[in-house]
Amino acid sequence: MYITEIFLQGFRNLSQLHIEPSEGINVIYGSNAQGKTNFLESLYFCAMGRSMRGKSDQQLIAFDAQESHIRLLVQTQNRRDKIDVHLKQNEKKGIAVNGLPVKRLGELFGTLYAVIFSPEDLSLVKDAPTERRRFLDMELCQLSRVYYYDLQQYYRILKQRNNLLKEIQKKPSLQETLFVWDGQMVEYGERIIAARRRFLVRLDEIAAEKLARLTGGRDSLQTLYKPNCEDGSFAERLHRNLERDILFGATQSGPHKDDISFLVNGREAKVYGSQGQQRTTALAARLAEIDLIREETGELPVLLLDDVFSELDESRQKYLLESIDGLQAFVTCTGIEDSVRKYISRDNLFYVENGTIIPQKENRH
Ligand SMILES: Nc1ncnc2c1ncn2[C@@H]1O[C@H](COP(=O)(O)OP(=O)(O)OP(=O)(O)O)[C@@H](O)[C@H]1O
After folding, report:
1. Least enclosed by CB within 10 Å: which of 147, 168, 194, 321?
2. CB of 316 shorter than 6 A to ligand 1
3. Does residue 123 have a known ligand-binding role?
4. Which protein residue has the closest C-alpha to ligand 1 atom 5?
5. Per the record, a Pfam family (predicted)?
6. In this predicted structure, which of 143-147, 236-240, 333-337 has the lowest mean pLDDT?
């Protein structure tokens, strides 16, 4: 799939723009703090219905504006869709697909598949398990509305169960009502565990291939699912941990505690990997997502690469460019290095200055 038109109004520092990107690699370049990442953010928002940087909807509205609009036209193999996003200062966001309001975010997923890679992606390997669960959930939600629904239900029940655990500390007789939540939690939790396991088996295979290519075979990668509860054991774990859960006033076991382990050359990349190896690992996982989305949906996602090239050596840059050939990509950078330039036509260059994006094909003189 690819985006054919982008309209933005009052989105962070991008006051007004309309561009028609190419189907291939589009390079958005300019100095620091001009609006490059903001531009990628607007595209990501249309895929996932939320900020990629964890910003609130209101923080995305331009400082001097009351509201913000994004409109994208997306061409798939057999459809043409229109996504409209409307953010307002004091109201809930409005999202519509082909003019029909989206009531739950799950209805938006799949209209635009996007894979993003940014320098912050290092946190996928380096930081706490929350980052890795977020990666898993974002990907699985894009691929499956059922997963999104299960996840929503699971977290809703988890919140209610945790509230009840705190109540039980004050009034132990309430413990009798806990089984109502436990039954539902296990049902949704087991489904989440199974979906994550299936996803990671495939991700492991593809990411290993990508990493081997990125490093010219020097490094190997294994991506392992580290579930907090093995399949079928969630109910028993909840039961076993009950006293501890009551003591903490919080549920100590379940998929909300899952993790992923990235092993580079057999060792935990988080602990032993160099900065470069961690970065390449995160990149391999993102590149694997592209293949997975294609396998599952038959569509190639749109790739958003935020300031990634400056961090990679020339051979990795070359492999990255080759491996994204054939899909639509939006690549931001501060300058265009010669090694990248030879892959890009001038028609696909967009210069950003102070929130204005100028297509270079219209700027030949
Ligand atoms: N809500 C907002 N309204 C208007 N401007 C904003 C808003 N939020 C952030 N900005 C401005 O956007 C600019 C940053 O844009 P962005 O993050 O896209 O930069 P960038 O071009 O990607 O730069 P870098 O190369 O440094 O990453 C900053 O000048 C910031 O003040």
Report:
1. 194
2. no
3. no
4. 13
5. SMC_N
6. 333-337
